Write the structure tokens for this entry.
Amino acid sequence: MPRASLFIPCIVDLVLPGIGESTAALVRHVGHTPVYHREQTCCGLMAFNSGFRDEARTLARHFIQVFEDDATIVSPSGSCVNMVKNRYPELFADEPDWQRRALELAPRVFELSQFLVDHAGVIDLGAHRHATVAYHESCSTLNGLGVSAQPKALLGAVRGTTLVPFKGADVCCGFGGTFANAFPEISTALVAQKVGYFLESGAELLVMCDPGCLLNIQGYLHRHHPGKTAMHLADYLAGGLPGNPGRRP
Amino acid sequence: MKVTTDRFRQTALEELANARTQKFLQILPLRLSARRQEAYGSFSDPEAAHRLGQAIRGEALARLPELLETFERNALANGAKIFWAADSQAANRYIADLARSKGARYVTKGKSMITEELGLNDHLAQCGISAWETDLGEFIAQLLEKPPFHIVGPAINIPVEQIRDIFLEKGVLDQPTLDPVTLGRAARRFLRDKFRDLQMGITGVNIAVAETGTVINVENEGNIRFNKSAPKTLVCVMSLEKVVPTLADALHQLRVLCRSATGQAAGAYISLDSGPKKADETDGPEELHIVILDNGRSAIYQNRHTREALRCIRCGACLNACPVYGKVGGYPYGWAYSGPMGQVLTPALRGLAETGDLIRACTLCHRCKTICPAGIDHPGLLLHYRNKDVQADPLLQGRGADPRERLAHRLFALAGSRYTYWRIFSKVLSRAARLFGKGAMLRGLGPLGRGWFLSRDLPAPAKKSFHERWRQRKD
């Protein structure tokens, strides 16, 4: 079986490890052997977005060294994948050797739904899950990677799942990394708007491809609408695979 | 105009709490976005038209010095006068001196962001010359001393009662009324009177054409055409990046500009002026002065990153796409340019010292970049500015990093640079997790993350990281 190297974002490693396990299960399910390099740490996205490029480069060099021998790298985070694919080359604009290594790495890194559909060629995972779901288009996934059809196709192929139209699906949830903490009132207005559209949609679950949006939306739901749930695509799909029905709520 | 870019936060809070602002933000950006999209549909190949518009801006910038020289040569040959203004003081002084030499007690103006940038109205007032804005929205904003709420609807959020009151106070209106048509007619009568005996009119410039020496303006009210045709002396003020190579380029840029700004295939009035009135012509200004403003732009131009900000054609489509603008409106940005347009232009023109919030008030969602007809990578530029701010870049007047923030990023990068350090960091976090229950959602962390916890809970760190789970797995 071909190998696929798991790129587990630091948030997933430390705070939401279940998403990493679901990712591994899905990779295995589509006929790949998941491998995990224990040396991996963080891609440097937060440092880069905050303007600390020296620190981001430190992390990016480490990332490249850990992953550059892998043929296929898969991650359950649109924003982290976008960082590696689209920002690393720019980050090393003044270091041609590292830039070359970043550019060689970029085409081998896949966001999870992109990996499943475009790389493994699987849309129907054979999953069963009874729920009405809406799909939130995470900004980095949609505008950074151009990934939108893949997760919706995967959800649409799950037996028992109804994907409902979602107003404002492609409007930012207001996370923006440190933005959420630095401009809390604006961020709150945006997440409240996102959740409002979710409630209007009639869906039971809001599914997305980015752990950052998930922290934001789920954190808001937990505070204000405890009965409602946001979920990572990996958890939703893996939960419907044969053998582990609805493993996590 | 008063510059309040350093009050972004406070003004944003006020606007979030302003019911009227919120009401208009529910309508205006969405409607303009929808109109834009519909208008783009009238191109036979919208994507190609979009890319061509971006390519024209790219070429215009790449050849900027040469194009400006060509423009100057051709405009002079047409009989126009050219004044190169190094900064706003030079431009304001030139315009005020000109008005004085023509014996003008007042001037009229077409809506232009560049004269807002100059603070021209205030300067003229100090010289004893009144400046009348003649675009209806801009006229209202001027009377109320408010900055523009939106680039294509400067006063769209102003309640009609407030317009009635200010019109009565300023003598625009005789009898109180709330009828919008009557109010509009009153403003028209008031401004027509100004045009009748006009010595000098001032407009901005949407596009300047190098090969013909032509200045082009787009509008919907006809007031700019009045400004250009009624007075003996016409002053057109342009920032130096407005020039494009050919008339064909200009026409295509007009197509994308009008569609992007208001969702029109073309504005109601498009004026192309090549020089003043010719000997055999019956109307038009006797003198045409074109003021070409630098105001820091040639310094911006030297850097290939910041140069990208000069692509902007001021259509305002990015405002309508921006989630943050959609919540706070135009006032918090504190200067002539609001929304993502302001976030890329203002820091470049005024420096980072007073725009630290502007460059960070962005979620990096990339919607502005996706729709920008000029091909600006707004998030890329904001990330560049953030880096320059942290580095205390002298050209952009970066302030340097907050020492605690820098220390946090240094320590995190150090932890992430070695496997062993990262495991220690991870262990510390999972130890901390034991303080909380299984699957706990935190409601606060003392002094940490107050902004986050304003409206959100946060999962506690996992007792076992993915790393540990993977190591202990049984399959």
In short: Residues 351 and 378 of chain B are 16 Å apart (CA to CA). The domain at 56-297 of chain B is CATH 3.40.50.10420 (Rossmann fold). Chain B touches chain A through 67 residues (CB under 8 Å).
